[in-house]
Design brief:
By secondary structure, the protein is α/β, with parallel strands linked by helices. Helix 6 (192-203) runs parallel beside helix 10. The protein is globular and about 65 Å long. The strands form five sheets. An eight-stranded mixed sheet has the order 5-4-7-1-9-12-2-13, sandwiched between helices. The protein has a four-stranded antiparallel sheet with strand order 15-16-17-18, covered by helices on one side. The chain is built from 14 helices and 18 strands. It has helices spanning 3-17, 66-74, 88-97, 101-104, 125-131, 192-203, 229-233, 255-260, 269-274, 278-305, 337-340, 366-373, 388-392, 450-457; strands at residues 41-47, 75-78, 81-82, 135-140, 154-155, 181-183, 212-218, 225-227, 312-318, 323-324, 330-331, 344-347, 355-357, 361-362, 402-405, 411-414, 418-422, 428-432.
Amino acid sequence: MDGMGVDRGRRRFLGALGAGAVSAAWPRGAARASAPDPRPNVLFIAVDDLNDWVGCLGGHPQARTPNLDRLAGEGVLFENAHCQAPICTPSRASLLSGMLPSTTGLYFLTPQYREAETLRDTVSLQQHFMAHGYRSLGAGKVFHTNTDPESFHEYGGAMGGFGPLPEKKLSLPKGHPLWDWGAFPGRDEDMPDHKIASWAADRLSEDHGGPFMLSVGFFRPHVPMYAPQKWFDLHPRGKIILPEARADEYDDIPRYARQLSYAAAAPRHDYVVSLGEWEHGVQAYLACVSFVDACVGRVLDALRAGPHADNTVVALWGDHGFHLGDRLRWGKRSLWEEATRAPLMIAGPGVARGGRCRRPAGMIDLYPTLSDLCGLPPRPGLEGRSLRPLLEDPAAPWDRPALTTFGPNNHSLRSERHRYIRYADGSEELYDHETDPGEHVNLAGTPGADAVVREMRRWLPAVNRPALPGSGGSDSPLYGPIDAW
């Protein structure tokens, strides 16, 4: 980052946080005069577009994720964790600010975090730790635009982002340039995620002179779903199990829901099928998940082998789910299970080992949870809840469903048993996961559903801020065309 950006960011940072931030500006590896700080470090790992196709979550029977599975076994796996928005920018902004999309008005891909008037002066998760003496380091996709200068003492870069790209698309000749998949490039070392993992592993071998937060953002399995051939070989074509796709999928859901979940940038399912690319697309996603699992494993192995192994909290999360032909659609951008459910696992000091928690959790809960685990004072205005009781006892009482929002006044609530969806036009969906885990039978308006609907409505947000000026990136016809991914 350039010096002007750092100075401008520091001024804003100090203005927002006060003099407490000054102590966080020591260089890498510098010794501090005071006694060693016993507070745990934080390794904060984000994986882009990772749905529940993870071995320990059981979303796909052919998922091969030994490193994620191992991490889940070392801590608590939240089996019922959900994003706050099924699209990158608002999901990450919600987690990193601790504020709901319905509070900030950030629902779509634009505006970006610091461009949003409701978020411009907020204190991010990383800034909160910086204000209390933590050194903040990061690389890759943490914020949607890869970095926020105010949130890092050191940022290693995006290292190529969604690249590298072949000279021409491999599988889908038409459509958005990022919507493609196939075996490319030839080596792991050419992939940005491999470089990000190497950078993070190096930081974990260093003495940072006090507690630190290392934020690591991986780009795969986000499209383009490219990975070297060896990862495709783990999931051979001809043996791939395809998701369920029912012809009657939309017979009992509101018209508004069908419109909202339409994404012009994503390929139509019938187009993918007509090219004979459905199995290949599923194979590519599984391959990219296995590849990014290996990248995560390199970072975790460096932690285990280094000086910080016994005093580091690890939190790994996905920013939302992803459709791969299920519900006859591709991409995210819906309020159904496939788009909202994502991995969330936490391990380290103060966390039970081998725990599996079925209580509903939101990614927005990470801000207060990590602050709580590290002994930081709670920050006013956070809308998540600390998951610490569930980290100590995964079966502890928990009464709040997980909330996901896509566009103004469109909300989904997920409890242990039910999913309830209410759209801006008042139409509704209700699913019982005990009898219908695929969410195929809409119970809204049927006899016996009223009591459940009334209970779920209690948890709808009281504030529904209009979309911010400059809002875009939703390619639903309800909101107009997009000019960006």
